Amino acid sequence: MLLLRGSRDFSSVEEYAKFLQDVLAQRNAGRRERLAEELAVMRGLPARRMESAKRERVKVDCGSLIHVDRNAYSVNSRLIGEQVEARLYLDHIEVWYGQKKVENLPRLRGRAKHRVDYRHIIDWLVRKPGAFENYRYKEDLFPTSRFRMAYDALQETAPGQAVREYLKILKLAADEGETPVDEALRELMERKAEDAITLESSQEVMRRLDTIRPVTMVEVAAVDLASFDALCTETAVRQ
């Protein structure tokens, strides 16, 4: 069927699921009579839906992580030390606390993997900045390359305050949005020595982002078609 389709590329999971449904419907079209015979002797479905998730009771450790199916996931730091219920589905994991779903996370495949969201632990890190340097998943706390570059720049210009200042900027990203903070850092790094990278300078740039030229804006000069005419004329003369 993929050969007939001409491509194995799908724009989304939903498109792939629709493709599989169409294939199954086509393949089963000639089996309806036999299916009807089977359905006639089948028992009715149970009144209650069978549980489709595996449940585990886990404790949120001091790093705001839960360990489920031998993989690590971050949850909100307010849950540190608490018992939560993880419900494992085929492609995602739900985290429940006090009869309320508090997280819906993509399920990791394999073993000894991790998914750490800086938004879950930034409040905890701001209160305990000393934990940043030795945090096991420190690299996950740089959501883009510009955040990493900003941290390195802070280490050069203000090593004693670099961690605290960077965590303030990361907290700003969690509260106000990662994209505008990333754009503000880009603008500050392009200025180089003109403005130091701080929480205050990042906020100041964010307030006037709509007046700053986007990095993706490219100006293309209009093509002078007369040059093509001259080239064609010159080529004809040489021939």
Supply database-style keywords:
9 helices, 4-stranded antiparallel β-sheet, alpha+beta, 3 domains, 7 strands, 239 residues, 3-stranded mixed β-sheet
Q: In summary, what is this structure?
A:
The protein is an alpha+beta fold. Helices cover 43% and strands 15% of the residues. The chain is flat.
Detailed description of the structure:
Helix content is about 45%, strand content about 15%. By secondary structure, the chain is an alpha+beta fold. The protein has three domains: about 35 residues, no CATH class; about 60 residues, no CATH class; about 90 residues, no CATH class. A four-stranded antiparallel beta sheet has the order 1-4-5-6, with no helix packed on it. Strands 2-3-7 form a three-stranded mixed beta sheet. The longest helix has 16 residues. The two termini are about 55 Å apart. The mean pLDDT is about 85.
